[in-house]
Amino acid sequence: MKRSTIDAAIDGARSLAAEAGMPLPGFAAWTRADWLAAAPTPAARPALERGLGWDVTDFGRGDFDRVGLVLCTLRNGTLAERDAGAGQTYAEKFLVAQDGQETPMHLHRRKTEDIINRGGAALVVELRPESGDGDVVTLVDGFERAVRPGAPVRLDPGQSIQVPAGVFHRFWADGGVVLAGEVSAVNDDVDDNLFLDPSPRYPSVDEDAPARYLLVSEYAEVLAG
């Protein structure tokens, strides 16, 4: 992805959140220089280690308008807390999907999540068990529902669906931009994504312009010094 496209997508997501009356944490406005200045301080280390901040991806498809997503991780526990079952064992993300923009079919081995339509157009979600057979029994707005493999579940603003660990899922915005949320167990985007069609979770970046934001996928290099 071009760096200019990534930075413009973050600008757009921030503007949409503000227009919708959905304030984001202060670090969502931080520039790359802000993060690099804070990185050596003990106070910033938890945010960096937990991957709080912006993530823009085309899942390696090279067609961001059709396949892609903008995310901001607002809170997240550590893998140690997850494995101990104590401490911050949860995560939350803010998501933006443009009209027709799809997050491709994938699953998480360790993470159950709720995907929530926070506002805008409809969000369409498909679920598919890893075996490919049988209904997925899950919760939609807290009510049990058996979802046929590949059957679209249309979520209007305010609605949500639970995606159990080990269940393939994909989703896209239908009829306009969608502001979405994700509430889940601890998030591990490095090792807990399995795509039905093999895809990288993070994009390669074409540095066509000076970077204004620092992506979560770049934190490891910052932490390494």
From TrEMBL:
Kindly list any coiled-coil regions of this protein. none
Catalytic activity line of the entry: D-lyxose = D-xylulose
Task: Name the cofactor(s) required for activity, per the record.
Answer: Mn(2+)
Please give the Pfam families that the UniProt record associates with this protein: Lyx_isomer
Has UniProt tagged this entry with the keyword Ubl conjugation?
no
Q: InterPro entries from the xrefs?
A: D-lyxose_isomer (IPR010864), EcSI_cupin (IPR047581), RmlC-like_jellyroll (IPR014710), RmlC_Cupin_sf (IPR011051)
What are the protein's GO molecular function terms? D-lyxose ketol-isomerase activity; metal ion binding
- Top-level taxon of origin: Bacteria
Instruction: Please provide the record's keywords in A-Z order.
Output: Carbohydrate metabolism, Isomerase, Manganese, Metal-binding
Return the similarity comment.
Belongs to the D-lyxose ketol-isomerase family.
Q: What is this protein called?
A: D-lyxose ketol-isomerase
Query: What organism is this sequence from?
Result: Jiangella rhizosphaerae
